[in-house]
Design goal:
This protein has about 450 residues and is mainly alpha-helical. About 65% of the residues lie in helices and about 0% in strands. The relative contact order is 0.11. Keywords: Cell inner membrane, Cell membrane, Ion transport, Membrane, Metal-binding, Potassium, Potassium transport, Transmembrane, Transmembrane helix, Transport.
Amino acid sequence: MLVPAFVDLAVNNEDWQVFAVASSLTFFVGMMLVLTCRARSRTLSVRQAFVLTTLVWVALPAFAAIPFAFSNLDLTYTDAFFESMSGLTTTGSTVILGLDHAPPGILLWRSLLQWLGGVGIVMMAVSVLPMLQVGGMQLFRMEFAERMEKALPRAAQIAAWIGGIYLFLTVLCGVLYFVAGMAGFEAINHAMTTVATGGYSTRDSSIGFYQSAWVDIIATVFMVAGSLPFLLYFQAIRGKITDLFRDSQVRWFLSILGFSILVMIVYLWRVEDWELGRAVRLALFNITSVMTGTGYATDDFALWGALAMPMFFMLMFIGGCAGSTTCGIKVFRFQVLLQTARMQFRRLLQPHGVFIAYYNGKPIPETVAESVMSFFFLFVTLFVLLALVLGLIGLDFITATSGAATAIANVGPGLGPIIGPVGNFSTLPDPAKWVLSFGMLIGRLEIFTVLILLSPRFWKV
């Protein structure tokens, strides 16, 4: 919080006082927690890890909302909490109007939240979720041990390497943005939110403000870079560059993305009668943005014809690779589900045969398949429940369904005129914002991490 405080102080914006006070309050509460919770043992049980993970992702946005609530933007605490939850979960939905004229401290704070949230989810995906066996993430426990622990046996070293890679990508992205014509401050902000696949921008019209093909290309490249497993970047640094492209999850992700872009280009060019160059540029950028959950926009894709809405709605759920900054269901779960279904078909045709589902050339444990199928069921169920609750609050069908989808999949913009790529979440009623904030939380923490706390059996000793 002191970083945007100094930025506001440098430009004589009085919001620096808000950040300074919020920083002091947060530091005081944090130190009290450290001092009162000191213990000799630092070993976490699985139950404690579930509680800690969820509470961290509730407490952080609660304190991160303070600068929003007391700044000159005159946001209510509901709006402030929504904005900070959207930032830390790298969702990208916003309630702030007039970003073009917002104080620099606030703009930087939004970007910092997404940047920290992005690296936080990578760390969690590498270290915490496999241990908790959430949604099939235990599949990567063995892979993690093989690829990282042999080279870097200590968790601190692993975190340092991932953080270093993340920082390098951010700096490189910022430099390229600056070379492409962005102002320095805007290049820094957009670099943080691009690599984090978060989508916060310093402009109301997002990346579309710049009307630059080079900016679009740079953003597309780094959105894809943020969507790939960071463990594989470490392998590439060690000289095993081919691992990045031999990984089946990466190949699936790039194939789905490429196929979706190609279909949309052909549709816009042949059916909607667009110029080929315009179709390529807009389809390439916006489909990448939605599928990776970044949420940038350069055009209102609601006006692209009949195919656009269902395709973008579908891509919201897919997401990127496990171990990346992206959100959604994740590609590896579709792979596991497809392999499991394929195995079941073969068993129906040959009842006495022995068939094994594989992922990346290794057998898929039965517990992983069950966990993935449970995740799919809960994901769809919660999406439907969120949409129903938003409908009961008074939102129309398109806003309710796409709002539920964009929250639980952590994408950013929804569909329709209200929360679409040219819209904003500010006009939604406060209850809807709290429901969407809850949706962002459960989506970012892979559902099970939050829902298990609601089970009475979890709290029994």
